[in-house]
Specification:
Layout lengths: L1 E6 L3 H12 L4 E5 L13 E3 L14 E11 L5 E11 L1 H14 L3 E4 L3 E5 L4 E4 L4 E9 L6 H5 L6 E10 L5 E6 L8 E7 L4 E7 L2 H10 L6 E10 L7 E2 L2 E3 L15 H19 L9 H6 L6 H10 L3 H11 L3 E2 L7 H9 L10 H13 L4
Parallel strand pairs: 1-2, 1-9, 2-6, 4-11, 5-17, 9-16
Antiparallel strand pairs: 3-5, 4-5, 7-8, 8-9, 10-13, 10-14, 11-12, 12-13, 15-16
Helix pairs in contact: 1-2, 1-5, 7-10, 8-9
The structure holds flavin-adenine dinucleotide (FAD).
Flavin-adenine dinucleotide binds next to helix 1, strand 2, strand 3, strand 10 and strand 14.
Length: 372
């Protein structure tokens, strides 16, 4: 009998397994893959302020830094925000986190697919027929989580298509907002200067990505094709019996930006803490769900802001772009942001109430001092 069985050795699972092992618990970390982190399903960007949540020193998974976020509108008008964005080598990052988990004492079982779990009893059923028993189960098995399914949950997801293509040295990541391409908005370019490439992707499928590349005349040679799916909103239930959901398995990825690394680490920390207290008999059950939902990463505001942005027509986006074209904001600070808000909203023809969720979200990011 293990103290905890962690299903999925992505960033969420490896981090939760490490935190639990460090607290002295007997942990098994199970992944269906033989080698974690591949194929890459990520644009590989992480705002520097989010890395400490993983509690790790930097390593060879950090490949470069980017100084600006540039938001581009359908009329090619754009503004820039100064930021510190780290570019990761995602396979190396996942492998690094797994190594930390193993180093802290977690038993690692790779190449083992979990079919289902029994949340009430703590049983984990592997595809080979083996059954593992644990006091607590952590579902960290990504957007199509088997643990979530065993709890009666199914994540709502949006597909994301991406290619890695050759790209010149650059100082910005780009977020394109264009509703002609996809009704739920954006495409991105994340340069990897050290490799002379960029991750070019979109919310949507490969035909959408091809339309983006053609419309914006993105030039480069494709060296890799990847993609995946991004959860759209937190699962209705994050806990049942002895099982909890973290990271993408719990739908905790930010649906506004698609960023899921920070929520993976944040939910891993909260879950490990709640399970530790339960295992030490300090609480009767695992007190995870309520605490997780109080955290800003689980806020419904991200989805509301996404919906608000999706509701704007391309015409409105162009007007907004014209109002903000050429601005460079010195950072994500309250002192910088009022100008961004003011310049955007005073432009005639843009109905203000529509912007409320976007402004609230911006305000919250400024308070948090980070975006993910
Ligand atoms: C195209 C794309 C671009 C993205 N770009 C970014 C970005 O730039 N920055 C950012 O912060 N986020 C980004 N994200 C989101 C980010 O990749 C995810 O949020 C993150 O990987 C979530 O980590 P996780 O550990 O919860 O899940 P995952 O990374 O999905 O890990 C789940 C693990 O569970 C294992 N598993 C699954 N099912 C089973 C099973 N039945 N049995 C055993 N093991 C199983 C898998 O093999 C995998 O190792 C992007 C996502 C996509 C699709």
């Amino acid at each position: 009998m293990y103290s905890a069985a962690v299903v999925g050795a992505g960033p969420a699972g490896s981090t939760a397994a490490r935190f639990l092992s460090e607290k002295g618990h007997e942990v098994i970390l199970i992944d269906r893959k033989e080698v974690v982190g591949v194929p890459k399903q990520c644009a590989e960007g992480l705002f520097a302020g989010c890395l400490p949540e993983f509690t790790t020193a930097s390593g060879d998974f950090l490949t470069g830094k980017i100084r600006y976020l540039q938001v581009v509108f359908p009329n090619q008008a754009s503004y820039r925000v100064r930021c510190d964005l780290l570019m990761l080598d995602r396979p190396k990052f996942d492998q690094h986190l797994l190594m930390l988990a193993e180093g802290s004492g977690a038993q690692v079982a790779l190449g083992q697919k979990v079919e289902r779990v029994r949340p009430e009893s703590g049983e984990v059923f592997l595809s080979g027929g083996e059954v593992i028993r644990a006091e607590a189960i952590v579902g960290a098995d990504g957007p199509a989580s088997r643990v979530a399914k065993s709890m009666g949950e199914r994540n709502r997801v949006v597909p994301a298509a991406q290619v890695e293509m050759t790209w010149p040295e650059d100082d910005a990541i780009y977020a394109y907002i264009d509703h002609d391409l996809h009704n739920s908005y954006s495409c991105w370019i994340f340069p990897k200067n050290e490799r002379g490439t960029a991750n070019v992707g979109c919310f949507g499928t490969f035909p959408t990505l091809e339309r983006f590349i053609s419309k914006y005349k993105i030039k480069g040679e494709v060296v890799e094709k990847n993609g995946g799916s991004i959860p759209l909103g937190v699962a209705a239930r994050l806990q049942k019996g002895r099982a909890v959901l973290i990271g993408d398995a719990g739908g905790l990825t930010n649906p506004f930006t698609g960023g899921g690394l920070y929520p993976a680490a944040r939910s891993a920390r909260i879950a490990a803490d709640a399970i530790d207290r339960f295992l030490r008999s300090e609480t009767k059950g695992i007190e995870y769900e309520a605490r997780m939902r109080r955290d800003f990463v689980a806020s419904g505001l991200h989805l509301k802001a996404r919906d608000a942005l999706a509701a704007l027509s391309n015409e409105e986006l162009c007007r907004l772009g014209t109002a903000m074209d050429g601005l460079v904001f010195p950072g994500l600070r309250l002192s910088a942001s009022p100008l961004l808000v003011y310049r955007g909203l005073r432009h005639p023809g843009i109905a203000r109430p529509k912007y409320a969720p976007l402004l609230k979200l911006l305000f919250r990011y400024c308070l948090a001092g980070k975006v993910w």
